[in-house]
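Hello Y.,

Per our agreement to keep a running log of every chain we model this quarter, I'm adding this entry. I've kept the format consistent with earlier entries: sequence first, then predicted structure.
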Amino acid sequence: MCYHCGSPSRRSFARFLAAGAGLTVLAGCTPEAPKDVPPSSAAPSGSPSPAAATVSAGPTAETATVGQPPETPSPTPSPSATLARQFSLDDPASQWVIVNKHRPLKPADYVPADLVRPAVAISAAGEAALLNSTTAAAAEAMFAAAAGDGVEMVLASGYRSYTTQVTTYNGYVAARGQADADTASARPGHSEHQTGWAFDIADGGGACSFQPCFADQPSAAWAKANGHRFGFVVRYQWMLHPITGYYYEPWHLRYVGVEAATDMLNRGIATLEEYFGLEAAPTYL
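Predicted structure for the entry above:
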């Protein structure tokens, strides 16, 4: 991806992607939809890893606290009480809810009760311009701080309903088959966007929107360095798809609260699965 565009490893990875590797789409939040897929207000979530990682199961959501970063990186570090668990990992109304390919939303058709349109620059329309009220307030503070540093950040895709995801995902299945659809679109009920806790950003100039090269744009660089101050993490980071199930999406931000986001940064933990001691979720169960 463009995050490492200048090095040999970046070029090698680019060649890997160019060769296909069984993946139709890398930047899954906004894949190019099949021609017969009806347009939606928001695009589907990222692409799964081409091969599932073999990982031992971590503690259950009912007992998980915060993962302790191991000396050697591991998808399931031992839990730690460094930051006491304050919120549910299962309740979609919780800022710590974990949604991935092993952990669908319950209920699957969950709708946040407090969706609002944040007072920020928005390129999305309809439901995609909405966030839950907590995320919206944090986004307003973050966008204002970025603007103060001369960075124009834009909300490109926010909330996405179950109904929207059904339409989009089924269109991909009809056009390409389920196996290929799973590389381009999140299955209904498995998208963080449905919670209202996550959204995608773009630069004011629109450069590299929903493309790997967005990592080099001012908004992405600023969000990665400063998002924790407002409670945000970059949810799907570089080369961690064997854990998260999605390739690098420098535009996809997830609200977890200032305390947790800062703790993750300070302890060098890059995924929510590792942080909360949960198993990796590279593919659907």
